[in-house]
Amino acid sequence: xxxxxxxxxxxxxxxxxxxxxxxxxxxxxxxxxxxxxxxxxxxxxxxxxxxxxxxxxxxxxxxxxxxxxxxxxxxxxxxxxxxxxxxxxxxxxxxxxxxxxxxxxxxxxxxxxxxxxxxxxxxxxxxxxxxxxxxxxxxxxxxxxxxxxxxxxxxxxxxxxxxxxxxxxxxxxxxxxxxxxxxxxxxxxxxxxxxxxxxxxxxxxxxxxxxxxxxxxxxxxxxxxxxxxxxxxxxxxxxxxxxxxxxxxxxxxxxxxxxxxxxxxxxxxxxxxxxxxxxxxxxxxxxxxxxxxxxxxxxxxxxxx
Amino acid sequence: xxxxxxxxxxxxxxxxxxxxxxxxxxxxxxxxxxxxxxxxxxxxxxxxxxxxxxxxxxxxxxxxxxxxxxxxxxxxxxxxxxxxxxxxxxxxxxxxxxxxxxxxxxxxxxxxxxxxxxxxxxxxxxxxxxxxxxxxxxxxxxxxxxxxxxxxxxxxxxxxxxxxxxxxxxxxxxxxxxxxxxxxxxxxxxxxxxxxxxxxxxxxxxxxxxxxxxxxxxxxxxxxxxxxxxxxxxxxxxxxxxxxxxxxxxxxxxxxxxxxxxxxxxxxxxxxxxxxxxxxxxxxxxxxxxxxxxxxxxxxxxxxx
Lengths: 305, 305
Known about the structure:
The complex is a heterodimer.
Chain A: H1 11-46, H2 49-52, H3 55-60, H4 75-107, H5 110-125, H6 128-146, H7 155-179, H8 183-191, H9 196-207, H10 209-225, H11 228-233, H12 251-260, H13 268-304
Helix pairs in contact in A: 1-13, 4-7, 4-10, 5-7, 6-7, 7-10, 8-9, 10-13, 12-13
Chain B: H1 5-47, H2 53-57, H3 70-101, H4 106-120, H5 123-137, H6 144-168, H7 172-180, H8 185-214, H9 217-221, H10 255-263, H11 271-302
């Protein structure tokens, strides 16, 4: 028979509650431990390299030939490849992502928007190794028809396909930002006789700009860290170039290339991939924190409105 | 000429510009759709001859027309089991902690900023964390366990964020009702809040796994082998003790690795295989994304409190 009287809490029940809370907090702590683990491994494994190579020459040397008899370690060479492919990607992703976001948020009917969004997500879900295949065997031959001198490995087609990969991220995050703009602002603009495009471009876009900027910054961070598309389609020789019509290795390509061969533990090549990864980690860390900061600022401003 | 003519001209121009914008947006949507169709068409066109049942049932081979992906899809499957076993308990626990237990203090802020940042860390950096920590330091080797742990950590932020969003949709009245009959916090979470949030959490888990299934860079860097002509040891055996966890120490290969290897081979014989493997991988991720989208759709419809 059940009695509905107040039951005194047994001590072990309270104990169990505390234990569970600590276990859950422990699981949440894994995120912090992962970051610490990444930092510790990257710094620990690359530190011996910087006993042999000065930080100055690492940052300023104009050649990256760590596996040659006379090795040179200029990270700038790999970063030039990364920057070029990223710039091509962003030149595709930022304008088209913004236009699509504006179309979906301000023009498309609800039904249409609901059916376009999953398709965009599907595009974002295509494995990047598959996109690399696509860049090398479909996009490059197509571009070679327009520009016969284009080499079969080049930063252009890798960058273009990378841009297509990033469009859904930019479009989806920007659309969220645009939709969060209060309806009263649009109504105010319509009341003054503005068209939908004028309202979207001159009122809604500026109001949502910090959220949109956050999506751009995230896009940059995606482009810097993207690996398989450039490893397959952009070529593997490190060369100092900002010309998208040439082949060049990016920072991520170099890591894959070295790690694919069975590398001896503790050797010079082993150290260099951790040093390159450390640079990548710091770069994306800066961009991720910037995006988060911009987004937080928008949220605070949103509350004030 | 009436005094209103200049205004009429401006309106006409504004409307023209708006139509031009809509044209550009539709053109972009069309281009994206064309790219998506082109991606599938090119893979189907090249890989058609290899898409036979025995492609899925034979091991890798030096001869392109005899090579199959048996070891690869089995490898992908067992790695995903470990990935889910890592990411689901940790991610859900962390999400529950942040949403139901955490007070807004420095510890919570630290965890949150880490989750935001980890979501943007390039996957290849996770690969180097795994190479330094799991392969070299803990001595796990290039095993199913290493790959599963790596991908599990990689998708942890996705699972945490999805769990938090799912928990937020559970109305406070459910919790209040549970507390009102004298339940403890954990009893409330376990018996009422988590079951209500389960479909949302499941959607996030599937999205995370579909991301993990296509990741190539982190498992290439741990040194996963491409050419494997055996399967991991079976988890069940007819003799005592009937179950074994030997398989988590087994070397493995996975669909994205095989795709990458075949794509980057200089001789053209393997292109059809690369296309067929890429198509298999894409269909797998598309199917998982489809399940996630369907779950979310059903969820939205049934959500009536």
